[in-house]
Amino acid sequence: MTAPPARPRSLHTRTILVLAMRNLSRQARRTMLTAAVMVLGGALLIFSFAIGDGSHENWIDSGIRTSSGHVTVEQPQFRVSRKLEDRLTSAQRGEAERALAMPDIAPLVVAVSSRLRIGGLASSAAGARPAQILAVDPVAEARFSTLDDQVVEGRYLEPDDRLAAFIGVGLASSLELRIGSRLVVQAQDTENEIAAQLLRVVGIFRNGVPEVDQTVVHIPLQVAGEWLGSDEDVTNVGVVLQGSEAVGPVTRHLETTLAEPITRGEVRVMGWREANPALAAAIAIDDFGNYLVFGILFLIIAFGIVNAVLMSVLHRHREFGVLQALGLTPGQTGAIVLVEGLTLTAVSGFVGVSLGLVATWYFLGDGLDMSALVGEDMTFSGVVIDPVIVPLFRAVRIAQVVTFIVAIGAVASIYPALRAARIDIAEAMKFER
Fold this sequence. Notes:
By secondary structure, the protein is α+β, with helices and mostly antiparallel strands.
């Protein structure tokens, strides 16, 4: 007697899919309630990630514009010593600027500012105060920084300015300075001698961070070169990029182009995380808090999936017994339950992500104004933040959300599937449970 021919695997797969879909449609109310929770969770996750990533990008942009940029090129010892002797030569500065102007990397670059940053003393007839003196090219710095937009009196530096100073309101108040007033700045020059320079105030700014308003002085780079004997040398070349995601490619490009001076220990290329560890740590802590909240949220959703699918299993003992009696294996019975959970999760996740994207873009595409809650001068990690948060949609985040939702659904469906696979046929056929 010959054995009956084995059924093709495709037929088994199609049978499992049909049975799974039929059960989802048969239990429509339970399916819709479970799906609604998952759709809401997915939409909320997309919204939260878009707002969170947008706020982080806002924090980064504000932080790097008041410090050294998304990427900075400087002499390796300067970050520790802060001495004028640890500066980039004009040749090294030119090499870095040419590297950033190359066609393959230039589209990622928004602004480049070569600066000479030194610590010194600012004084007037009213007294003296410590100062952070920043010698800049006015045109390049206006594209790089935001201080030129924070003028409360006077104006920002201009290319043809001589002996001009742009100072914060805190320093102006403590030294009793106003537009047209004279002040003297003192610092150590390239010969390690104390040199003084007379300047005239052309503008006063208000940044909102006391450390900036009370110490920062902008002067033309040419004036600093003549005063300190540094000519066209700078302490760093700062770069503002299209976004923080461009830091990696630009950093690698600079490291390749400047390989020789880097090998000699004359130049160092740093991303914003290395140059501003306090801001990086603050963002990492905020990210951890977000992930913790999302984890708790989806743990609750996972229990909801387990409950829905498990209740379906407990009410279908006789059905599963009949299916196994007709030839389905325990593994195929469990696969039906697993497919139900995965299908419900995948469809709900897709709908939730789509709804989250559309709703966030439609209602908050122009930004979420938080000024009513935090005020106009919102500070974070020593940086003034724009209170308008523009959502940031990233493909990697969408992929993460979809993967996370499907993974939660798969894990939550495993136990009910195992219960279905372990059903005793004889016991299940006795009576309806």
